[in-house]
């Protein structure tokens, strides 16, 4: 589970902005919307939502988590010399010269960790990791770049159990554009494996871009999982009564027409013996016949729900953390509520899976659905920098105030101010 996340000098974010899943005061919806993890003293929230105008910075908050995930998983294996994918705030000269910084506090395998790093496009400047297996922190990693000696300084970390020659190998092998965490795990540092695996297996970020259906399609190859996917789609009232998965050999028809001929030939050569799985949805006619539709012929909303099915079902089963940008795209507000409530039900989410999403669906701004500490607003200040604010920072009457109406009335800001367009025709 995520406890807290901070990011500084990333795209539209200039000053340090901090988001958290911490329950604040108030016991409303405590049993459904909150989770008491045995490794943490306080309740944590299962769901949090980001609201705000277009270009307010919501996607940048979420993409920051995606960058941390990507850096941990792939920085040690990427090509030497590739730029680190950080993007500083460019609307003032000072920030443009400063590093980008990320820090994440989370729970993995019953232990709380605090991990972070700062970087520019050329090198990692700082990296740190503290573990809390008990109440007192253990220093597992503190690494910093010395600009005078042009080398890294590693603080002594006796809690990272390894022989001196092993630590030296991990340190000397870590490139300036790679994370120590990634490199050490690649070199068989078992103590850090649990931290790495949390990023690999538990954190699931889905930011801007189309949702592929490959994950759900693969689930449907197994009869038990197919039934779970079908139950998910039936609960969403999409008119689907069955699913069928056909298998066929890969051929040129599976390659888009706009692919260059030489590229198409290479793809065909590489995948000629591969099998392709085609999903069909089954519908019942008024005279009780079964008709099969290609999934591609279903509505965009149905296709998105099919794609989401595997991510939701796996998260709820194993306690994953799911990050989604623009959850409401192509979905009716009731379907968005359905997706959110699956995380807020003790029956469907017994393992403390978490959902963080951005949305423009204001029907969720309802105190019978969301606690006040679950709602966050993104907007830009006068200097075009993103500011993150929790609804809890406003004076909101518990259980009585119509949050949706107040939001549209501008009480919490984070709204677009649309001007009048004057044109001559």
What's the helix and strand layout?
Elements: E1 2-8, E2 17-20, H1 30-33, E3 34-36, E4 43-45, E5 47-51, H2 58-74, H3 93-96, E6 100-108, E7 111-119, E8 124-132, E9 138-146, E10 151-154, H4 164-173, H5 180-186, H6 193-202, E11 203-206, H7 214-219, H8 223-235, E12 242-249, H9 261-271, E13 275-284, E14 290-294, H10 300-318, E15 321-324, H11 333-343, E16 354-358, E17 375-380, E18 386-390, H12 403-408
Parallel strand pairs: 5-16, 5-17, 11-15, 15-16
Antiparallel strand pairs: 1-2, 1-6, 3-4, 6-7, 7-8, 8-9, 9-10, 12-13, 13-14, 17-18
Give a quick rundown of the structure.
The chain has 425 residues and is α+β, with helices and mostly antiparallel strands. The protein is built from 12 helices and 18 strands.
CATH fold type of the largest domain = Rossmann fold
Which stretches are low in confidence, meaning pLDDT under 50 for 5 or more residues running? none
Number of helices: 12
Residue share in β-strands: 25-35%
User: Main sheet, how many strands, which sense, barrel?
Assistant: 7 strands, antiparallel
CATH architecture of the largest domain: 3-Layer(aba) Sandwich
User: In percent, how helical is the residue content?
Assistant: 25-40%
In total, the number of strands is: 18
Strand order of the largest sheet: 2-1-6-7-8-9-10
CATH class of the largest domain: Alpha Beta
How many domains would you count in the coordinates? 2
**Any idea what the shape is?**
globular
Radius of gyration (CA) equals: 24 Å
Distance between the termini: 56 Å
Order of SSEs: EEHEEEHHEEEEEHHHEHHEHEEHEHEEEH
